[in-house]
Amino acid sequence: MKLQSIQVLRGLAALLVVLYHIRSLESLSIQANGLTEHGIISGMFSNGYAGVDLFFVISGFIMVYVTDDLKAGVKSAADFLFARITRIYPVWWLFAGMMTVYMVWMHGLSGHGQGWQAISRSEPLIPYLLKSFALVPQQEHPILGVGWTLVHEVYFYFVFALMLLLPRRWLPALLLIWGGWVIGGSLLGLSGPLAVDLPALFFYPMTMEFILGAAVGLIIMSGLHWRAGAVTLLATLWLMAALCYQGLETTHTLEWGRVMWFGLPSAALIYGLAMLDLQQRLAWLVPAAVGIIACTVIYQLYGLDDKSADGLRQSATLLAILVGAVAMMVTIWIGWLGGQSMPERMLALRAPLNKALGAFVRLGDWSFSLYLCHMIVLSLLRHVFEILGKTGPLAPMFQLGHPGPLDNITFAVIGLAISIASAGLVYKFYEKPCIILFGRLRKKMFGRDKRELAEPATA
């Protein structure tokens, strides 16, 4: 059973990452133009990288959910690993190949100045590309930078496949051992902000987010369902508070800090939403969505960013969360009152709400392609803006940093629209056909069709 709530979360996580990178590239262009204007995407979106943390927790949850009825053994482990590897690599190779072509087009392969050294930086070019396509640890980010998360995903899959060799009842203990292993290695100084080698990969703090997601999966599959609606709303406010208040990125923030700030509320949110989905009570998404919108609007009106004073961010966060909580309660009250006094009108809202839900579910389906394609799209768009912003009557619209919000809004809207459209096309004409092709091959090899192991776990 595909959980619609998890697909919605995937879509939201991907949007967070896209908006974060729109902000980053916009800031780079403003600096390149010698201007000092603040980008229009700031505030909580300065922490949009938290979408990765949400993806990691989702991944851990899905691993447990889709293997719930598997019998321990080599066949099950091989089945799982085949499904996951064929889900990740074909799409990754497409976009990594595109990025390689783009980088060669931009820098060439001369080996001097802006040649291959600009592509692979401190690594020799050919080994760098081979490691990038294989998604194994190296000193630099892969050729397509966002692929660093997939290095961890592949590691997750191999470790979890080993766990599937053992009886299912051992899984809680194995996860505890894995978590202790990560904490112990970190205390010994073996972890770091980037998996540059196998020890750094094995003891990477964000592995705990995958373990948290797996723990949530075990709790839900055990039948322990408690106050799904309340948990969802409180977890939503918790995550929104973290997005608003968290400040400058530091070594701590990029390691254990993000596990605490974003991993824990993400786990609570997945617990609540997955329970609601299994209980067919997704109407709770309405007050959650209203609360998110209210929090976002209030906080963004302050015009703060990650460098703003702690006191300002604190007061803005408190007000935003308070308004969001009130908006949630008002929405619930209106829903209850409407159900009592005009049930026909409330039932008429089902159709548009289901359409909105369907749109976000589709975005969740596209999230892997969106995650991988958006940096290519935005980088190309940035170069287009550089060209169009030099001369002509419309130059101010395309010169990022020009006084006024028009240039910023244009870049953000076009970048987001083209990224989503590109992801939809890639999903329809490449990603989904790959899923079908390898799904049929998996069925022939392993004879499994009860639950789809190729369900995309992360972007």
UniProtKB/TrEMBL annotation:
Top-level taxonomic group: Bacteria
Molecular functions (GO terms): acyltransferase activity, transferring groups other than amino-acyl groups
UniProt domain Acyltransferase: residue ranges: 4-281
Keyword Transmembrane: yes
InterPro entries membership: Acyl_transf_3_dom (IPR002656), Acyltransferase_3 (IPR050879)
GO annotations of cellular component type: membrane
Segments passing through the bilayer: 48-67, 88-105, 143-166, 173-196, 202-221, 228-248, 260-276, 283-304, 316-338, 359-381, 409-430
Keyword list, A-Z: Membrane, Transmembrane, Transmembrane helix
GO-annotated biological processes: polysaccharide biosynthetic process
UniProt keyword Membrane present: yes
Protein name: Acyltransferase 3 domain-containing protein
